[in-house]
Amino acid sequence: xxxxxxxxxxxxxxxxxxxxxxxxxxxxxxxxxxxxxxxxxxxxxxxxxxxxxxxxxxxxxxxxxxxxxxxxxxxxxxxxxxxxxxxxxxxxxxxxxxxxxxxxxxxxxxxxxxxxxxxxxxxxxxxxxxxxxxxxxxxxxxxxxxxxxxxxxxxxxxxxxxxxxxxxxxxxxxxxxxxxxxxxxxxxxxxxxxxxxxxxxxxxxxxxxxxxxxxxxxxxxxxxxxxxxxxxxxxxxxxx
Length: 240
Fold this sequence. Notes:
CATH topology of the largest domain: Jelly Rolls
Helix content: 10-25%
Order of helices and strands: HHEEEEEHEEEEEEEEEH
Radius of gyration: 22 Å
Largest sheet: 7 strands, mixed
CATH architecture of the largest domain: Sandwich
Structural class: alpha+beta
Mean pLDDT: 84
Number of domains: 2
Strand content: 25-35%
CATH class of the largest domain: Mainly Beta
Shape: elongated
């Protein structure tokens, strides 16, 4: 319910949009899920082959390009990774920016994604339902991409989970991704986005389900049969 109201608020003019989104976000914090996230630095995503820094383990849940406007999806590395990003106007940020550098990437899709980011002016972001549609008990991996090469490239940014777990701050021009892993305890997951100047940014993120596969009953039966044969063979050799 809150998410739908925030999406509607995102369509309002700038001043009332900021007030509406802030009020709705604050009102939802008490109901937010804040599973503990373990943060780590991920692969570099800048330079000619920066798109290869997108992690591909597990099953893709969603890939999101935050562009400040809902637009056509963008496919990165169609002949290789073949990951399609949905281009959205996020309800959690109020502004967008065009960096026009693309991180020096040779893939047109990834370059276009790195050319834009959404940002919040004068306030860090606490999005109580930044991730939604999660399956309780599943393990997830979110990879966050934020980079800038403009006047503010040396500002640092970091992330939190609303439960006191924070990632290591990194420079905006480092093109280092941040990876968070967590086990969902609700269908929503809170994400906090911080910036040393209180002007946080985000280009894109990728969410993957990395829950270990559970063997099918037939697989267990084959495994047990194999162990039984090994035991029988061992006893037979010992008897011989």
